[in-house]
C-alpha cells in the first residue's frame, strides 16, 4: 500500500496541489515559502487521523484534501469551510469517518474503500513515520512526561533517540524469538544460516553506521542493557553526546530498521540539515537498502541528496501548483 496521488484544494486560500507520487522515492523541491513543509505536514496529519503538528486549525490552511492509494482506497479531508450541502454529498460514500475540531468548527476525515471493521485510528492500517531532523530545545508541556525523562534529554533529537532506544529493545527481542521459533519448528534447519538471515538487516544497520562514523573513530556498540552506545578509543559515548548530524543519521536509519521490512511511509523535511555532503549523497540509498518496502517522501534544498541516482524522483512545487479558480 502506497500513496499514488495527493490533491489539496485551497492551500492558503489561493492554490491547488495535484501531486502524482512514485511508489519508492519522492523528492519535493521548491523555493522557500512555496509550501513544501506545509504539504508534508498536511499529509502526515491526515494519515495520523488529525494530528496536524505545526499547522493548528487545518481549515485555516486548506479547503479540502484527498490522498489516493494504489489499492483504490482514498482518504478525504473535508474542512469546516465546506458548504453543508457539499459536505453531505462528499460524506455519503465514507466507510469510516473521523471528526476533529470543535463542535462549531468540525473537520471530517473520510475514508473510502477501507473494509476494516471498528476502525478507530488510521495508524492500525497505514504506518507513517514523520522524522524531524531539526535540533531544537525540548518542549514538552505534559509535566507527567517530563518527570520520567532522564536529565540528559535536552533536545527534540535527544527525545527521539530516547523513544527509539525503547523500540529498538523490542525489535531485538523479536529477532531472538524468531530464531528460537525457527529452531523449534524443524530440527533439519541450518540454525546458523537462519540466524544470519534474521539478523541480516540489523548487521547491515551496524555496518552502515560504522561507515558513516568511521572518520571520527566512533564504533556502534551495546551496553549491558542492550541499548546503543558508541566506543571512541577508550571512551564510551551515549547517543545523546553525538553531534547534531550524527544524531540525525542515527534517528533516520534506526527508524527505518525497526520497521522490520514492513511497508510504511517515511516523511522527512530537509533531512540534509547538519549532514556532511557525503552523508547526504548516501542517505536515500542506505534507507532503501534497509527497507525497500518504504515509500520515501521528503522535501529538500540540497542537490547532494539527489545527485546519486535520484534526479528522476524530483517534483518541483511549481509543477504541481496552480491557482485556485475564482
Task: Quickly list its features.
24% strand; seven-stranded antiparallel β-sheet; five-stranded parallel β-sheet; 326 residues; single chain; 2 domains; alpha/beta; Rossmann fold; 15 strands; 10 helices
Report on this structure.
This protein has 326 residues and is an alpha/beta fold. It folds into two domains: 145 residues, Rossmann fold (3-Layer(aba) Sandwich); 134 residues, no CATH class. 35% of the residues lie in helices and 24% in strands. The strands form three sheets. A seven-stranded antiparallel beta sheet has the order 6-7-5-4-1-2-15, with helices on both faces.
Count of helix runs = 10
Helix content: 25-40%
Q: Can you count the beta strands? A: 15
Strand content: 15-25%
Q: What structural class should be given to the helix and strand makeup?
A: alpha/beta
| Whole-number mean pLDDT | 85
CATH fold description of the largest domain: Rossmann fold
Low-confidence stretches: none
- Cα distance spanning the termini: 36 Å
- Name the CATH class of the largest domain: Alpha Beta
CATH architecture of the largest domain: 3-Layer(aba) Sandwich
If you compute it from the alpha carbons, what radius of gyration comes out, rounded to the nearest whole angstrom?
A: 22 Å
**Main β-sheet: number of strands, strand sense, barrel status?**
7 strands, antiparallel
Q: Which strand order do you get reading across the main beta sheet?
A: 6-7-5-4-1-2-15
Question: How many discrete domains?
Answer: 2
Amino acid at each position: 500500500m502506497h500513496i499514488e496521488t495527493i490533491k489539496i484544494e485551497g492551500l492558503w486560500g489561493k492554490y491547488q496541489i495535484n501531486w502524482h507520487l512514485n511508489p519508492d522515492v519522492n523528492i519535493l523541491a521548491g523555493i522557500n515559502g512555496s509550501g513544501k513543509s506545509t504539504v508534508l505536514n498536511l499529509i502526515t496529519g491526515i494519515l495520523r487521523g488529525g494530528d496536524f503538528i505545526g499547522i493548528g486549525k487545518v481549515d485555516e490552511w486548506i479547503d479540502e484534501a484527498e490522498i489516493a492509494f494504489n489499492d483504490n482506497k482514498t482518504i478525504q479531508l473535508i474542512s469546516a469551510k465546506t458548504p453543508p450541502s457539499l459536505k453531505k454529498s462528499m460524506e455519503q460514500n465514507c466507510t469510516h469517518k473521523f471528526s476533529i475540531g470543535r463542535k462549531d468548527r468540525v473537520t471530517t476525515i473520510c475514508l473510502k474503500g477501507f473494509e476494516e471493521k471498528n476502525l478507530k485510528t488510521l495508524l492500525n492500517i497505514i504506518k507513517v513515520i514523520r522524522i524531524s531532523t531539526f535540533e531544537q530545545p525540548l518542549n514538552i508541556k505534559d509535566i507527567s512526561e517530563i518527570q520520567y525523562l532522564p536529565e540528559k534529554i535536552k533536545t527534540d533529537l535527544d527525545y527521539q533517540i530516547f523513544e527509539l532506544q525503547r523500540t529498538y529493545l523490542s525489535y531485538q527481542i523479536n529477532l531472538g524469538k524468531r530464531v528460537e521459533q525457527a529452531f523449534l519448528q524443524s530440527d533439519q534447519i541450518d540454525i546458523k544460516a537462519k540466524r544470519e538471515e534474521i539478523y541480516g538487516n540489523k548487521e547491515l544497520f551496524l555496518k552502515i553506521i560504522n561507515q558513516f562514523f568511521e572518520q571520527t573513530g566512533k564504533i556502534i556498540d551495546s551496553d549491558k542493557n542492550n541499548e546503543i552506545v558508541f566506543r571512541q578509543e577508550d571512551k564510551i559515548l551515549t547517543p545523546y553526546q553525538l553531534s547534531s548530524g550524527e544524531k540525525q543519521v542515527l534517528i533516520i536509519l534506526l527508524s527505518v530498521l525497526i520497521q522490520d521490512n514492513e511497508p510504511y511511509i517515511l516523511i522527512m523535511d530537509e533531512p540534509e540539515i547538519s549532514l556532511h555532503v557525503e552523508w547526504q549523497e548516501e542517505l536515500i540509498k542506505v534507507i532503501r537498502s534497509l527497507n525497500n518496502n518504504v515509500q520515501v517522501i521528503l522535501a529538500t534544498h540540497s542537490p547532494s541528496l539527489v545527485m546519486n541516482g535520484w534526479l528522476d524522483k524530483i517534483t518541483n512545487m511549481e509543477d504541481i501548483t496552480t491557482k485556485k479558480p475564482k
